[in-house]
Each structure stands twice: as structure tokens, then as C-alpha cells.
Amino acid sequence: MRLFEFAAPKSLEEAYKILSRADADVRALAGGTDLIDQVHQGRRKPSIVMDIKGIPEMKRLAFDREGLHIGAGASCTDIYNFPPVKKNYISIAESAALVGSVQIQNRAGIGGNICNAAPSADTAPSLIVHNARVVIAGPKGQRVLPIEQFFLGPGQNAMAKDEILLGIVVPPPPASSASHYLRFIPREEMDIAVAGVASMVVIDPKSKVCKTARIALASVAPTPVRAKDAEAVLEGHVINEALIREAGEKAINAAKPITDVRGSIEYRKELVKVLTRRTLTKCLETLGNR
User: Fold this and answer.
1) What does the pLDDT look like over 35-54, one tens digit per residue?
2) What kind of fold does domain 177-286 have according to CATH?
3) How many CB atoms lie within 10 A of CB 260?
4) How many Å is the maximal CA-CA distance in the chain?
5) CATH classification of 5-51, choosing from 3.40.1170, 3.40.630, 3.30.43, 3.30.310?
6) Tens of pLDDT along 228-248?
């Protein structure tokens, strides 16, 4: 393991000074559950590891008229226990509760989970169906990106070398909406998803027509992806069993899975069908439409 400098800034200004060092390869440490292992294995060779947990803005967890604000340093445990998350963003609570063990959840956060940009990241699909935005910051200022534009490929995100993730903003959920996330793993706990699906639907309470549907997939493409063909099946219609089944079939159009030790291409496609059907059914049950 290559030696590195450790920094623990107490403000964004201090962090920006560290990031602006031209000779440095800076890696932000939030929970460290991915980074420490990557450094130990030699997959990452930073010259500076910068602990961001001492920066107040990084620990923000709030809900207001703009929606849910999740600081990059907020832990999964704090996120899924936050009452507005449990009430308004069920799929985010569900996915945050699946990131590793309880001990890992006490350290790891959604910020680190998405920055790692693993195709199997459990929290990414839930953020996508809720139209989340990422706030990226650095010495040159701040910028905001839709979460879907953040993922560039396995292990690659849209941040420049001198930028860090400040946080995530999730808009208020539409009225009469519900979201859920499910994944399949070989073991009962602490495993990587073979496939994961988040679904969100908005149902007109009078006509029962689906006004909006959003479905996102994990672990079946180089990045998390929207299943737009499946969404189109549902929007403008009263959702029934036949449409749910059709949506499951259409969801695989967005999948570009690989065969590896955890599952074959065909197996992953079948899982996408099943998980899409189950998450949509759970959404309708939450809304009392089942």
C-alpha cells in the first residue's frame, strides 16, 4: 500500500485548498468502507485522503420546501431513520438499509455509495426515480447535475479531479405517489445485488390513472439505467396485472447485463422482470390501489 497524507478539513474553504493542489491525487473519505479497501488492494493510490466528516455542510440532513437535502457525509443509518425519509421516500429508506451490515451503515453514506459508481449501487435507482440532483463543489464553485448524468461508467462519475460531492437534493415527492426498491442477492445479507429495481408511480386518486411512472435498474448495465419502455406502458392507464406484467417484460429493454460468477445474462433479465413486477405491486399496495 502506497503511503499517503491524511487531511481532515473543518470547512469547505480548507477542503478547496487541498483539492486545488496541482500535485495531489485527493480522495474524499466519508464512511471509507469502499475507499479503505480499494487503497489496501492497490486499486486506488491517492496522495491525500481527505476526511470530509468534519465539514458541517457535509453532514446536513434536512427536509424543507425544496425537498430532501442529504449531505455527502450523512450516514445510511441517519438517512433511513430520518422521519421525512421514512414517510416520503420509502425506496430511499429501503435502499439505504441494504448497504452492507448495520455497522457499515453507521459509517457509509449514500454519497459514498454513488461516488463509487458501482453498477450495483443500491441507492442509485431510488435516487433516479425521485429525480434527485447532485451538488458538486470545488475551488471553481458549485454545479448541479441530474443524478442520471452523474454516472459515466463502472467506477467513473462526473466529478473533476478537483471536485467533491457536497450533497444530494431530492425534490418533494408528488401527491399520491409511492416508491419501492427491491434487489436480489445470493445470500441473505451483505452481498452485492445481482439485479435491483426501484419503481415510483403517481396515481390520480379519482380516476386511478397512472400520471407518472419511473423505473430504474441496478447491476444490469455499466451504469444505473431508466427503463423508459416500461414506464411508457403504465403512463396514461389504470394499472392492472396485465400492464404490470407487460412493464416487467419491457424493463429488460434497458438492461445490458453481463454473465459473471453471480449470474448469467438470462438470469439477470428474468430478475429484472420479477423485481419490476414486485416493486410496482408494492407501490400500488402503498397507495391502497391493490
Assistant:
1) 777 888 777 888 889 999 99
2) Enolase-like; domain 1 (3.30.390)
3) 10
4) 63
5) 3.30.43
6) 999 999 999 999 999 999 999
